[in-house]
């Protein structure tokens, strides 16, 4: 008797808790995990792996569903710490994607621009998960003087509509509703 009462009370409470947590998911771009490995010490070459979680704003999701192409740039760079001024940064590489919704087939089309690879997905969550899945991405070789303890590698992500009209371009500078940026992850070089 007590088990059945507990089952009727606990199950609905747990269900309500799960639904409210899902409904209040934070919007933005988040790194679930990230790692870097040096694979060639002679040429100073690194491999980067990461899982990036994309939580679109309602504006961006609605724009995608209405035919606006979303572009994503995952960028990698080399930084140098400076004591007297801002850190020096140089761009190393980037992975660029375009995400479209095809209304007739009800598929999400994901294109990687640097390799011209294309994928079709039935759900937006699957397309976003695969867009954020980076496995052993090879960075260009670095010079050996970057191992002085003053340099670091960094990675960040930006997502925005490919076309924004003029008022929204100005508003996108001050609001995360129209475009998203992640935190910047960095790894020291030694």
Automatic annotation (TrEMBL):
Record-linked Pfam families: DUF4390 (PF14334)
InterPro entries assigned to the protein according to its UniProt record, in alphabetical order: DUF4390
Protein's name in the database: DUF4390 domain-containing protein
Organism: Leucothrix pacifica
